[in-house]
Amino acid sequence: MPWDTARTRRLLLEAGGRRFAATGFAGTSVADISRDAAVNKERLYAYFGNKRQFFDQVLAHRLDGLLDGLDVTGTGPDAVRDWTGRLWDRYAADRDMARLLAWESLELTGPAVTVHRLSACAGAARVLREVLPARDEAAARQLLLSLVVLVTGAWTLPGLGALITPDGDAATRRSAVLEHAEALARAAQPD
Amino acid sequence: MPWDTARTRRLLLEAGGRRFAATGFAGTSVADISRDAAVNKERLYAYFGNKRQFFDQVLAHRLDGLLDGLDVTGTGPDAVRDWTGRLWDRYAADRDMARLLAWESLELTGPAVTVHRLSACAGAARVLREVLPARDEAAARQLLLSLVVLVTGAWTLPGLGALITPDGDAATRRSAVLEHAEALARAAQPD
DNA sequence: TCACGTCCCAACCAAACGTTTGGAGATTCG
DNA sequence: CGAATCTCCAAACGTTTGGTTGGGACGTGA
Q1: pLDDT per position in chain B (191 positions), as tens?
Q2: How many Cα atoms sit within 13 Å of B92 on the Cβ side?
Q3: Which end of chain B has a smaller Cβ tally under 10 Å, C or N?
């Protein structure tokens, strides 16, 4: 059997994403990850240095593409609603994403912001501004932030949902968030 | 020097709130809390059973009052903006609150929902519905959830803020959130 | 074929972890 | 007072942690 070091690396990164998303940095042991990946933990140290550097790699690997490819189709509040819906569906398809984002914010003092993610956000703000042309850059960014927080919060603060809408399911919440996103976009537009 | 067991308990609960808010349940050791409280850690076990039960007590102690006393003054979207602003200021005055809320959602599988918090949320939804009388119960709760998520997210997902609004400060974000809250309330109202 | 470097694993290590114990002062009640 | 009880602490317990090590299996170039 030949070696496949790229596969070993990938197995570790994937298992790290799963475990860190589930229990966070402090709540996950290297042995957990090693067991999930079915790879000896010594490999993690050989490839990534230590647990903390490995965590950074996992975050970059899983979060850099957060806003990539969420193109806007059309213009106006409807387009904003569409975009928000696609962001929601991205989280729904990759449950780990939102949780990793939350752990990053909570467990790291300074967010491990990569250049890639920064420019992706700038791109999203620019696109949003084209769609809602009347607002200035700052207002567009504030709107973008509210949209992302609204969607991300649904996945990272499930306790609030259970508390405030005890009988609500994900589909209802999704359509409510989209309605709210559209309302925000409409209000941001000049009349 | 006489004993003051109530004080010892309080010191532990306060230190637990600080430490858990800063580094979460898994990231905080009992020794950390004991050091912060200047109380022997054996007292924590004597009073609260174990680390996990102590965590639950800290959450209940600090989070039960989350929505208490946030009375609504006036009616209509302006009142909703006011209410949202008071929630924001509550978080600003007690930085631990939002973070504890986030840790609770992330680290506990089922949210440790207390009866007290559930009824407080029901009360808030009822008040909100009185302020915006046209909407049904479900829509009022969805709106309330969006407002709380919007405000809470600002404190629990600071990484997103740093990413999307790199130059923004708390005051600008506050007024943007209030503007958005008012817009949501306005959209929820019938014309 | 042999020697050298790479990949991998089991076993190991010291430190930190959650939790318990033994006993020293303080309080209470007879 | 004296014995029982309560509050508190220092030290210890066994386990788990992040991280390392020694050696065997494999690939590569001569």
Answers
A1: 567 899 999 999 999 999 999 999 999 999 999 999 999 999 999 999 999 999 999 999 999 888 888 888 888 999 999 999 999 999 999 999 999 999 999 999 866 667 777 788 788 888 888 888 767 889 999 999 999 999 999 999 999 999 899 899 999 999 999 999 999 999 988 66
A2: 12
A3: N
Residue B114's closest chain A neighbor by CA?
A163
Q: Flag if B24 and A26 touch (Cβ within 8 Å).
A: yes
Nearest residue in B to A104, CA atom: B159
CB A163 to CB B121 under 8 A? yes
Question: What six digits make up the tokens of A168?
Answer: 């609500």
Least CB-CB distance to A162: which of B111, B152, B166? B111
Torsion of CA B74, B80, B86, B89, to 10 degrees: -150
In chain A the domains, ranked by start, together with CATH numbers, are 5-57 (1.10.10.60), 76-188 (no CATH)
- Locate tokens 């049904």: which residue? B136
Tell me the nt nearest to A1, Cα to C1'.
D26
- Which nucleotide has its C1' atom closest to residue B45's CA? C19
Three-class secondary structure assignment of A75-120: CHHHHHHHHHHHHHHHHHHCHHHHHHHHHHHHHCCCCCCCHHHHHH
Comparing CB atoms, the residue among A99, A108, A139 nearest residue B106 is: A99
* ipTM reported for the complex, 2 dp: 0.91
Residue with tokens 């008071």: B86
Rounded Cα distance between B95 and B105, Å, is 17
Q: Which nucleotides of D are covered by protein (CB under 7 A)?
A: 6-11, 16-22, 26-27
